[in-house]
Amino acid sequence: MNTLPLPLDGITVVSVEQAVAAPFATRQLADLGARVIKVERPDGGDFARGYDTAARGLASHFVWCNRGKESLAVDLKDPRGLAVVRELVAGADVFVQNLAQGAAARLGLDAASLCAAHPRLVAVDISGYGAEGPYAHKRAYDMLVQCEAGLVSVTGTAEQPVKAGVPAADIAAAMYAFSGVLAALLRRATTGRGGPVEVSMLDALAEWMGHPLHQGMHGATPPPRTGLAHSVIAPYDAFATADGEQVLLSVQNDREWRRLAEQVLGRPELAEDPDFATNAARTANRERTDDAVARALAGLTGEEALAGL
Length: 309
Hints:
Blueprint: E1 12-16, H1 21-31, E2 35-40, H2 60-66, E3 69-73, H3 79-90, E4 94-97, H4 103-107, H5 111-117, E5 122-127, H6 142-149, H7 168-191, E6 195-200, H8 201-208, H9 210-217, E7 236-240, E8 246-250, H10 254-264, H11 279-284, H12 286-297, H13 302-308
Parallel strand pairs: 1-2, 1-4, 2-3, 4-5, 5-6
Antiparallel strand pairs: 7-8
GO molecular function, one term: CoA-transferase activity
Protein name: CoA transferase
Pfam families: CoA_transf_3
């Protein structure tokens, strides 16, 4: 049995947060043992509480992002409420906020102001589009950021773009905020100083678009929308079996292709054929590759295919 304390035991986090990005970041800090004090509006709290009632009467997004926290309702427009939050921050190790752009600065709760007042504090600003630039004051919604970062351009079918089924932009921002806090706390352990952490949803999700970005920058055709298929790997799709089941295949390298050809498809010659021997060749001949796999799996039941795999 592990008797070690959790990694963030003794760390206090104060977070003025709503929706997904900041709450998911601080929930992970709570999972690692931090005490997280969630500051909410007095008129209904975090608006994510109202998304649905699926989780035993509570909103599924809210339950997902807010376990392990304490909650405090504070009116930040009231000087008395703001004073309460300032007092909490003075005793905290980490402060996180994802208010509308400019709101935290007007309250004196932006990262730069707080770090100047509390040098050991790690202060996190999470925004949609960053503190500067033409989009800085735009409202940021996950679907919009998925479009603007380019994720939707490579997701879906040739006929229909789709967004990811989970809030990818929020999750990306949360993960970078979470890792930023951990890095800043590690630095504080050696220097004695905290510092600001700034994360935007657009920057975070744009980082996830690295491989299509490099393809475009270096003259290649940007990856098309291919449904379950992969733009540069083959075979990589769902294939029907004789009993109507579907088997999803993702062959990542040529060794796997050889084993698939020999042990599942029953066509070892495909591993030697120059039209199929390498991933580059299989991708160039995707239609023939997929046809060979489809024909072989159509003669097997789903159970037989899985046994071979």
